[in-house]
Write a structure and sequence with these properties.
Blueprint lengths: L1 E5 L6 H17 L5 E5 L13 E2 L18 H6 L4 E4 L2 H5 L5 H13 L3 E6 L3 H4 L3 H10 L11 E5 L13 H12 L6 E4 L4 H8 L6 E4 L6 H18 L1
Parallel strand pairs: 1-2, 1-8, 2-3, 4-5, 5-6, 6-7, 7-8
Helix pairs in contact: 1-9, 8-9
The structure holds phosphoenolpyruvate.
């Protein structure tokens, strides 16, 4: 399983250090072999090698240059960052990132060999039009994206489920993941209001290879509980 925590614009540097101390000691004490990724804010990056992957929530697709307010490859390399989130719905909808820019970021960071967690997902109005429309919407979000890229992780995150406490039914999640599986062999995470209470059931679904968690992962304790649920599932499936 792959479990990823997206902090968004939350946590100070000091809070992130305290968080990492809890998660890292949990991972080593329990000999966790599942992949655990944390996406802190840029300000909390550190030069420390970890037993948890640290990724960034964004990056500008250039080596360096005149891009005011952006963080480029040169700055990420300074912190040994090799993992990036691309296409998150908050960047698509709030920051108005186009599919063209998203695909450019994808190409650039794929060429650099980054692990890319690539997010797709439909707004509520699209979901209400039925699963055919939903899949067509998601397919448009794959435009310019190499679904055979070996270090690709897909995250299916319905926009209306992010930060709202709402989730699709287990059957609905499974149907979308099954449909996505026909298009790629990459691991497929589910994201959108995942919490301790539903993480185990979601990870147990067919073609769900893990979870991307926002709000509920802000608690290190809760994130560790979700990791423990993944470990339990590995044992149940073995
Ligand atoms: C996210 O930001 O990727 C996310 C899934 O957020 P939340 O868990 O808060 O819905």
């Amino acid at each position: 399983m792959i479990l990823a925590a997206n902090f968004k614009a939350n946590k100070t540097r000091q809070e992130t250090q305290a968080y990492m101390a809890v998660v890292e000691s949990f991972v080593s004490a329990n000999d966790i072999s599942d992949t655990v990724i944390v996406f802190p804010p840029f300000t909390a990056l550190e030069h420390i090698s970890r037993n948890v992957l640290i990724g960034v929530q964004n990056g500008y697709p250039v080596q360096n240059g005149a891009y005011t307010g952006e963080i480029a490859l040169e700055q990420l390399e300074e912190f040994d960052i090799r993992t990036i989130l691309i296409g998150h719905s908050e960047r698509r909808h709030i920051m108005k990132e186009s599919q063209e820019l998203i695909a450019e970021k994808f190409r650039f960071f794929a060429e650099q060999g980054f692990i890319i967690v690539y997010c797709v997902g439909e707004p509520l109005a699209v979901r209400q039009e039925g699963e055919g429309k939903l899949m067509a919407y998601v397919e448009a979000q794959f435009e310019g994206i190499d679904l055979t890229y070996p270090d690709l992780i897909i995250a299916y995150e319905p926009v209306w489920a992010i930060g709202t406490g709402l989730t699709p039914s287990m059957e609905e999640i499974e149907r979308v993941h099954d449909a996505l599986r026909l298009q790629t062999t990459a691991p497929i995470l589910y994201g959108g209001s995942v919490k301790v209470e539903n993480a185990g059931a979601i990870m147990a679904l067919n073609n769900v290879d893990g979870v991307l968690v926002g709000s509920a992962a802000l608690s290190a304790h809760d994130f560790c509980e979700m990791i423990a649920e993944a470990v339990q599932l590995n044992t149940d499936k073995a």
